[in-house]
Amino acid sequence: KLIALLAGDGIGPEVTGEARRVLDALALDLAFEEAEVGGAAYRAHGHPLPPETVALAQRADAVLFGAVGDPAFDALDRALRPEQAILGLRKALSTFANLRPARGFPGLEEASTLKPEIARAIDLVIVRELNGDVYFGDKGRRTTDAGLREGHDLMRYDEAEVRRIAHVGFRTARTRSGRLCSVDKANVLETSQLWRDVVIEVAADYADVELTHMYVDNAAMQLVRNPAAFDTIVTGNLFGDILSDQASMCVGSIGMLPSASLDADGKGLYEPIHGSAPDIAGQGKANPCAAILSAAMMLRHSLGEAAAADRIEAAVATAIRGGMRTPDLGGTATTRAMGDAVLAAL
Amino acid sequence: KLIALLAGDGIGPEVTGEARRVLDALALDLAFEEAEVGGAAYRAHGHPLPPETVALAQRADAVLFGAVGDPAFDALDRALRPEQAILGLRKALSTFANLRPARGFPGLEEASTLKPEIARAIDLVIVRELNGDVYFGDKGRRTTDAGLREGHDLMRYDEAEVRRIAHVGFRTARTRSGRLCSVDKANVLETSQLWRDVVIEVAADYADVELTHMYVDNAAMQLVRNPAAFDTIVTGNLFGDILSDQASMCVGSIGMLPSASLDADGKGLYEPIHGSAPDIAGQGKANPCAAILSAAMMLRHSLGEAAAADRIEAAVATAIRGGMRTPDLGGTATTRAMGDAVLAAL
Ligand SMILES: CC(C)[C@H](C(=O)O)[C@@H](O)C(=O)O
Ligand SMILES: CC(C)[C@H](C(=O)O)[C@@H](O)C(=O)O
């Protein structure tokens, strides 16, 4: 199996480096090919997502992604900024289903600003649509008839887009508690009304799943008030972006959380939910666990290696239980030391 | 001075009733006129925002608003649903600047799910644009050429809309700590890039205010990680909707928080940030403090009665210090009992 390793910017190379070491140690039949992406690719090729990188990602059986984003390019046009690389990849790979689990790690509850008994009870997954919404609708700048500068972005979904992500939501809920909460803003948005209609239609196929609906502002509130009440959340691209970052911070350990972005055939792109953290890049301070756990998700969802995935997840839990703490977790362990601890526990 | 009293649905009448009693007790020269709005108006007139209600609101010096929303009308077309009343009023009154303060109340930190020392330190205000964005852009449903149902909502801002809310943000920051954080999603949205450009231009008039920019997903994260780091936040309609609900729940006492929606001349609509809470309507369980504090904001911002506003706010603080607790605060006091306690402390 071929893995495209796209390390990207900032701490991306450090954390994917540790994930690679863990994968190598498992002695599975994996080949790795690297390519540049983000600011690194812009420096080398004048574009954050060069065609060779897209070609490799499409050819590979799965993509292991680090992070993109570099303040050195803040002044560039949006289309050339490092972040465009991840948006372009999601679209080129048709990875429309983004799974973002947020679960407390035993022993890490103190890292959360939530009371420990609240943080400890969090165990949810956000299923975020990743190929549509206001991210990919018609967008631009123009001057109005009155001579004013204007910016616009079209939010839109069609029923096919909603249906396929709704199915992922229901199937995910079924493997968990059987409760699915669909988040929208149907009291204001037509897009959300279509979303809600279609989710209700799809529900007919899943009589065993209990479906509820919540407005996004209320969801942001309930994620603080009673996060344990959520199990599976399905929502659009924009709301999912906001709520998943919020949920991960409620858990208290953003450096621990992986994500999977899947296409219709189970091929996927795997990345930590944290960003490129340019302020600590290259200093060995980054927590590689999110990248290592993303590699585990890759083994499970795209490579049919569930047992190996379990081993990695257990090894990370052991390292944490053993007291290993990178700075984001209040400790002083280096990126490499955390990687070593996971390797030792494999 | 004429106050339009729009009590609305659910707990709206109960909580505005207590606010009215407090205002009456101050013996200011205020006249009140009531009108129906939301589900109540739909029942009486077949529309959630009848023309007489709009006319009264426009004629009045200020509007004291309760809440709208009634699940009995969930099946209605969006344009006829109770929530349309508040959207329509905001537009009819050109109240483009929504101020949502979120500050812990001494003695109420335990109500928050955040650790007490985190909740106690929260003291921020969100300045939310209220007349534009994806709320009011072109929206609709159609069938695509491929025969698929589609929904769309246009997100848009022009520079004049951004400029006037940016000025409110800077002026607000100036009366506080002098720190303004502008929240957008400029790495994805053209609307946000225009927003950021214009906010930076306006900053030239406020050399004494320190301006920072943050992406909305990061802001949702930082509101959990370190809410005390925020002072004044300025953002668009949709992001402000989500972040202000989240921030208020971080404080832990959504039943305590008021809001003001102001036009260019200081005329305004004042409402609790909580909703109509149909599940507890008519049972005397609602906390009237948010409505009472909204009345105080009205006195300060629209009626030139700052001293009276101070008196109300002090009286609410006294009632809370005295141990008065409605069910949302973990107690059993009735709506009326809380109102009585505030009146007694005036
Ligand atoms: C980098 C950015 C474009 C991206 C997004 O908004 O999707 C990020 O926030 C994420 O959630 O993966
Ligand atoms: C009721 C709804 C339309 C409204 C909004 O989204 O603005 C509410 O959530 C609010 O924040 O006042």
TrEMBL record, chains A, B:
SMART domains: Iso_dh
Its EC number(s): 1.1.1.85
GO MF annotations, alphabetized: 3-isopropylmalate dehydrogenase activity
Location of this chain's protein in the cell: Cytoplasm
Site (Important for catalysis): residue numbering on this chain: Y135, K185
Alphabetized UniProt keyword annotations: Amino-acid biosynthesis, Branched-chain amino acid biosynthesis, Cytoplasm, Leucine biosynthesis, Magnesium, Manganese, Metal-binding, NAD, Oxidoreductase
Protein name: 3-isopropylmalate dehydrogenase
